[in-house]
Every structure is written in C-alpha cells, then in structure tokens.
C-alpha cells in the first residue's frame, strides 16, 4: 500500500505553491535505503526528524507495520500536516509527535530517518543529539535533493559517527548513511553570542534563522525602533526567530508586554533562551504558532516584523502578505505594524492595502523600514 499511501499525502495546511509537493524522490529513496533496518526495528525504535508532511513517518509505518514511531518536525505546518495525513490514513495511533528536539526524542532509537536540513548547523545539532542519546547500534539514513547537498554534510556527520557513506543517486536525490556514534561526543547547541554593540546575548539552536548572529535587516529595524508607538502597552514580535526584537522592546520599555510568535520549534526554543538570558522572560511570552494564531482581534498596539520569503526550499511571494494580514487582524485601530524588508520587494502597496496608510521610516542600501497604521 505504501506507494498508494504516499500518493494520498497532502501538504495542508501549508501555503500552496507550484513547487510544493507532499512527497519527493528523496523521501522515496530514504525509505528504500532504510528498508533493511526498518524491517528489523521494534516498537519505539524508529525516529523520524525533519519530515516535511509525513512521507517518511507514514511511509515507514505503513510499509513495515511499525508502531510508536517518534517524529519531530521543526515547522508547525509540517507537524500539523503529518497529524492530518496520519488521521486520514488511519495511522494516528502509530505515531508519537515530539514538539522538542531533545534527548527524549531519540533515546534508545536504533533507526533514525532524517530529511537533510539545508543548514549545516541544524544537521550538526541533530547528529550530535542522536550520537549522544540513541542506541549504540543506531543507523542514520539521511536524504535530500542533490542540489541542496554538499560534501560538508559528510564532514558534519563524521564529527559524530565513525562510518559515513553516500548512496547512489536516484532521480536527483541521494542518501547519506551514518553509524557508529563516537563515544564522548558533546553538543554545542544551543549556542550563545554576546553582542557588545547591542548589549544583547543571543541564544540559538541549529535550525534557527541567522543562528546567534543579528541579521542586517533586524539591525536596521533596531536602529529606528525607538519611534515605534512609544506609548504601546502590548506588542507582538511576529516571526520572532531568536527573539532579538522582542528582547530589545521589552528591555527598553519597562511598561510593555510582548508576545513573540514563530512556527519553528528551533526559533521558539532559541527565543525563550534569549529572553531569559537578557532578563526579560517575565514580560515576553514566546509562543509556537502560525502567525498571530491565539491572539484576539484588535488586541495589540504594535507589531514588529522582519518577514521571510520562503517555505523550506520553496520561494513564495505569499508569505509576507499573509503575515501583513495577520498583523492587521490583531492591531487595534491606530496601532502600527513596523516592518523591515528588502527594498527590491516593493511591499509598500501591499502593506497599504492590507494594513493601512504606510509611511517610509528609513531606507538604506538594501532595506526599507515602514510603519503601517491600522485603519
């Protein structure tokens, strides 16, 4: 039934896009390459990390009759899609989703299926976790599209495992096999960096965008943030990443409460550690959520946003407008969305249509900061 099952998978609730698919050649190759190990695995001995919409988790579960398969997906939409697909296909009882990338996820695992992340830091964190906490005879079968793979991935896996080799390519996909966890291996994650110029400590897990750096767009917005609704009582850092904007807002405005949201589990874990490290955890609530889900309409005075423009490897022009609409929903009349964006993207007309009158606050060589007032 596996091929029929894979064909039945959906990406919902993901934002549709022409190049967005629920299963690809890399998923199928991972399942084929891992078949001997999966056939020998017992209940609770299989872990899946990074499954986009459930192809690896449900494909393995269906094909080999597995039970108590543990799964972790960084993106909330991927987690929700896996749950929805499992429910529709009658496999919900066979899967245990874990929100956190932590030792409980991989403890005692003998087979780990991994959708290779594009970021080497993300791969390093997963590999280190598996090597330290899975069974001594664990095998890792990690697959991806060849255009997104590099020899550096072999090097990263080699830091944590004694045996690493690549499969033959198939349909522009390839698999890396790793086994033999190195004894005494330690992990650097989460990492931390002190930014003296900002008076800020940033914590980050491997899959968090920009890591412990403060990206140039965020820095540009920070330069102008003092003028953003000075009398605001409640603010939202939408798509908070490592929590830099939320932390600075809370630290510089003692009377302000901030909600920081992101759909990435790595971002949420990073943001919680960042706000704690900077002493503002009592006034910053970090939530894993899609956009502003869970916040009431017209309930905040200020939203700050440095919007992404992609979903995984798919570049989408609908991500930022969707976030603008989310911001508009929760802003009180007269509240403002302060947004930084690459000047070439020309977001101002979209902001005016979705939020309200929009003024340019600053423009640099690459980025523009705008303030949009909710009608």
TrEMBL record:
Molecular function terms from GO: N-methyltransferase activity; nucleic acid binding; S-adenosylmethionine-dependent methyltransferase activity
Annotated ranges, domain RlmG N-terminal: 8-179
Keywords for this protein: Cytoplasm, Methyltransferase, rRNA processing, Transferase
Keyword Cell membrane: no
GO biological process terms held by the UniProt record: methylation; rRNA processing
Domain Methyltransferase small: 200-370
Pfam families per the UniProt record, alphabetical: MTS, RLMG_N
InterPro entries in the record: DNA_methylase_N6_adenine_CS, RlmG_N, RsmC/RlmG, SAM-dependent_MTases_sf, Small_mtfrase_dom
Domain of life: Bacteria
Name the record gives this protein: Methyltransferase domain-containing protein
